[in-house]
Amino acid sequence: MSIYNDYLKEIEERKGQGLHPKPIDGAELLGEIITQIKDVDNADREDSLTFFIYNTVPGTTPAAGRKAAFLKEIILGESVIKEITPAFALELLSHMKGGPSIEVLLDLALGENATIAKDAAQVLKTQFFLYEADTNRLETAYKSGNEIAKEILESYAKAEFFTKLPEVVEEIKVVTYIAGEGDISTDLLSPGNQAHSRSDRELHGKCLISPAAQDEIQALQAQHPDKSVMLIAEKGTMGVGSSRMSGVNNVALWTGKKASPYVPFINIAPIVAGTNGISPIFLTTVDVTGGIGLDLKNWVKKLDDNGNPIRNESGDVVLEEAYSVATGTVLTINTKTKKLYNGDIELIDISKAFTPQKMEFIKAGGSYAIVFGKKLQTFASKTLGIAIVPVFAPSKEVSIDGQGLTAVEKIFNKNAVGSTPGKVLHAGSDVRVTVNIVGSQDTTGLMTSQELESMAATVISPIVDGAYQSGCHTASVWDNKSKANIPRLMKFMNDFGLITARDPKGEYHAMTDVIHKVLNDITVDEWAIIIGGDSHTRMSKGVAFGADSGTVALALATGEASMPIPESVKVTFKGDMKKYMDFRDVVHATQSQMLKQFGGENVFQGRIIEVHLGTLTADQAFTFTDWTAEMKAKASICISEDDTLIESLEIAKGRIQIMIDKGMDNEKQVLKGLIAIANNRIAAIQSGEKPALTPDANAKYYAEVVIDLDIVVEPMIADPDVNNVDVSKRYTHDTIRPLSFYGGVKKVDLGFVGSCMVHKGDLKILSQMLKNIDEQYGKVEFKAPLVVAPPTYNIVDELKAEGDWEVLQKYSGFEFDDNAPKGIARTGYENILYLERPGCNLCMGNQEKAAKGDTVMATSTRLFQGRVVEDTEGKKGESLLSSTPVVVLSTILGRTPTLEEYKAAVKGINLTQFAPSHKLLVRY
Length: 924
Prior knowledge:
Layout: H1 2-16, H2 27-38, H3 45-54, H4 62-76, H5 86-94, H6 100-109, H7 114-124, H8 132-143, H9 147-157, H10 160-163, E1 171-181, E2 184-185, H11 186-189, H12 201-205, H13 211-223, E3 228-234, E4 238-240, H14 245-255, E5 257-258, E6 267-268, E7 271-274, H15 280-288, E8 292-295, E9 299-301, E10 319-321, E11 330-334, E12 339-342, E13 345-349, H16 356-364, H17 367-384, H18 407-415, E14 416-417, E15 430-434, E16 437-440, H19 442-454, E17 466-469, H20 480-496, E18 499-500, H21 515-522, E19 529-532, E20 543-546, H22 549-558, E21 560-564, E22 568-574, H23 583-597, E23 608-612, H24 618-627, E24 635-639, H25 642-661, H26 670-687, E25 703-708, E26 716-718, E27 736-738, E28 750-754, H27 760-777, E29 786-789, H28 793-802, H29 804-811, E30 812-815, E31 833-835, E32 855-858, E33 878-881, H30 884-893, H31 899-905, H32 919-923
Parallel strand pairs: 1-3, 2-4, 3-7, 7-8, 16-17, 16-19, 17-18, 19-20, 22-23, 22-25, 23-24, 28-29, 28-32, 29-31, 30-31, 32-33
Antiparallel strand pairs: 1-11, 5-6, 9-10, 11-12, 12-13, 14-15, 15-21, 26-27
Domain Aconitase/3-isopropylmalate dehydratase large subunit alpha/beta/alpha: 409-894
Pfam families: Aconitase, Aconitase_2_N, Aconitase_B_N
Protein name: Bifunctional aconitate hydratase 2/2-methylisocitrate dehydratase
């Protein structure tokens, strides 16, 4: 019984970490446990019963299959276990969430023993994770006259799996806990450097905020046992930066409630809040768990006698406290009045958190139940030949006569399913849409695979055009954690039907390409909807939504997603770009000018940014759409000219073909199919049958922003402003400063060019700058390390073919070797150029980091505390975000350059060809 003994050893090791036994997902271990249960004299029988009942992972795991089979034996009387009666065995099956458990329940319900069939049917009526193989069995049995099958279908048609659940309680008592002041990044809830432990929920829970915070939360729970602890971002937004299902899991683990007494470490229903609400993609993740996210608005603009905002010496709007939510404050959430109270005092309307759809999520324990439940009810009604009984809240359909459609409204209307036929839908409508492209990344992928197992999915939905599993977040260091996790993940996803960065059979070279860049290449229709397991799933073709690992799993399993059509903000440009400016400066200027135009209000937050970048190909335009995640936008859409779109699609076709040539296509030839889609789209544009997507001339926007390029006269830098006296102003992306602010004297300790915010053009700029500097000074000498991580191997290959990689090699002191990748993270940097493997590298912060307390100049998007660089006792680490030329020159000089130095360094380099599009303006 060596596997069981190994498990006992692991248990002892975990005790030393203050952890419980790891949940069991392997069939072989559970098989030994079952053997010991059957042996009434076995010394380990009592522990084995506990492991079997309370510590086995449900769904489609191998262990779940063994558990379901053993429970079937007990129910049929083939095995007699006094501690597990047939009735208890059925109860355990009811908590196993689909897959083998549904197969067993169907065997029993459609079997010959009438009493068992009735009992099994009662359990089946509570289940909703049924797939085609399961529903086909029910349909076949019903059509052959089976009364039990009819009874089950009638229950499904009435949606009794939902209607018989307890109603949401009217009053929810909470006690507040200020998790942080200012925007709270999901890194605080689930640090990137702990990504390796995300699939071990209890272990990962140890990294929530800090041990001190965990103690404070437990103290509040002890003082208020009848209340839920509500985590708050005071003077900020909760959950910025990424969706981070692991962050919600951690919050739920510490403050939520158990999903099932028989499923370990899976908690649901966390309650989170922010002065400025919840980040859109993080809120979707909260919905997955049936949680509640509140927009407190407890700090408001201070107004003068004329009703105008009062500003301080820095020009920032002064805020005043409308009501206190200090740690330990007891509040009441009323789900009926949809108000927040302190005692009898009404504080604020919170109805946005309790829409009919969100109330259903709360009642059902999460959004999955509703998605699968609706599909199951539709199937049952169709099979019985009856009309669908109105049970679920009707989807809100907003249709305004005479009003045109924005670009996102057009895409949602094209891809909508289940909406009123012929009805044109506008922003605010709740829509179920088909998903074209899905992406899973490697530090959330293990959780996605767990979610797929828990919802009993075994194969990708046939309506998904293509899906990709990346290896980019663990690309920097091929350490023992990666060796243990990544091959297992790749095999699961490859078997499931995704194109995978690593071939489990080892038949093609392992790729570490950044997920967003690959998705940008495999998106071959600007009418597509993309769902990806990262906040930066922001394509420059189609509309893409960053999502949690659960929503990614749902999209993979069903080919669908549900969400309201967001409002849009239109962004156009006027004026001319200076020759010495980089497009990244336009991106930063957009955020800066928008905030000034709207008095500090971020009109992008929670909305679609419809940006009119008609003259830029997908690679360059991606720089803008990628950054929109940090603008707190829900998503972004790039409006392109016909010729530019065709050029982008041709580039995408070429890169997909390279993936095919490397052997990455699967049996269904998904990649080949994407090339066919691209060819059809190009033909439709060229023929005039279907030009590139544009909004209607009479579309309505929440706001329209015009960016004046004439006033963008020097490089722009997003500064974390780590020493701002107002803590809430630190580590936001809203402090955009001109290069001259730093006076050419701010020390820079390390530079980073790489990850998703750069494209091939950036690396060509780097190559040209090195040659320029060599000519100007006679040599290239770095006074600070420069780390370069290309986004994809395709780009590296293209740079090699065009001669630029040779230049980078000439000036580098380190070049990655895929035949011998680093086994441990770098702890110190020399003043040289490092050519790292394609992937996320410093931007992710889970493997490589800058030295503590460093000032980093990066092309990244991550300036959050502790992400790229951590603090020391005496100095705060800071990650300033800028263009490739600024980063490169800062490392050559060891400080921020002056404007004159910058201009000299980029002389003769074509940084961008961007200019406002006049063709698009003419078209509509």
